[in-house]
Amino acid sequence: MMEIHEKKFDCPVTATLELIGGRWKAPILFYLSKGTRRFGQIDATISGISRKVLTEQLKDLEKDGLIIREYYKELPPRVEYSLTEFGQSLSSVFNAMVHWANENLVKK
Amino acid sequence: MMEIHEKKFDCPVTATLELIGGRWKAPILFYLSKGTRRFGQIDATISGISRKVLTEQLKDLEKDGLIIREYYKELPPRVEYSLTEFGQSLSSVFNAMVHWANENLVKK
DNA sequence: AATAGTAGTAACAATATTGTAACTAATGAT
DNA sequence: ATCATTAGTTACAATATTGTTACTACTATT
């Protein structure tokens, strides 16, 4: 039985997708796996996401301990996001997806 | 670039989650990976899903070539669902998730 | 002829997710 | 004092997803 903020999951796959599922979390995490990025960079790279939703997703990911937010009191202000160790540990899952997609989905 | 029924994805992770993401598809596929199952068995095992949503998800999965539906004209009628080879190929992805969850999520 | 059991469907309601557009906070440079 | 720039927030709207309840089709058994 897995537990993620009060909710319980009997299926490990569902528990995992609770953290990385949805339209945006996986692409954000996958992008951050390439290195630390600023808010604006993520916004520009993850095409289609709005700033509001991006903020929400980043907050969720931070709350779940997958990423860290670092605010620099510069000007203009700079905010950097990076994976925690916990977030980095997901690379095994993403690697499996990337490998599977490359082997099994049509490439054009 | 991956293509799944007209939609294009530049991110392999997004492309994969397009097929197995959402609230129910992964648990259904994961359950079917244990063997062929009848509609009623899936309904009884995947707790919380309604019959309507289960039907919809099964149709999606069939359309995407991940499962096969076999109808037996018996009585009472019997309908069996099982993974296709394509569906079975996802086991690498599910295994990665199960392994990650077991290593990284609190067990209670 | 009515009943029971499996695998659904139909109409509708509720909830959750995502999007849009305009606005704010901070502050060094002009 | 105003402007520019980054990283947001707020109020609201639209869309998508999921759920509820009642109903259907099939036909062997009672």
From TrEMBL, chains A, B:
Q: Which UniProt keywords apply?
A: DNA-binding, Transcription, Transcription regulation
Name one process (GO BP) from the record: regulation of DNA-templated transcription
Domain HTH hxlR-type, by residue range, is 11-108
**Which InterPro entries does this entry report, sorted A to Z?**
ArsR-like_HTH, HTH_HxlR, WH-like_DNA-bd_sf, WH_DNA-bd_sf
Record-linked PROSITE patterns: HTH_HXLR
SUPFAM superfamilies (alphabetical): Winged helix' DNA-binding domain
| Gene Ontology MF annotations | DNA binding
Q: Known PANTHER family for this protein?
A: TRANSCRIPTIONAL REGULATOR, TRANSCRIPTIONAL REGULATOR, MARR FAMILY
The protein's name is Transcriptional regulator, HxlR family
Species annotation:
Flavobacterium fluvii
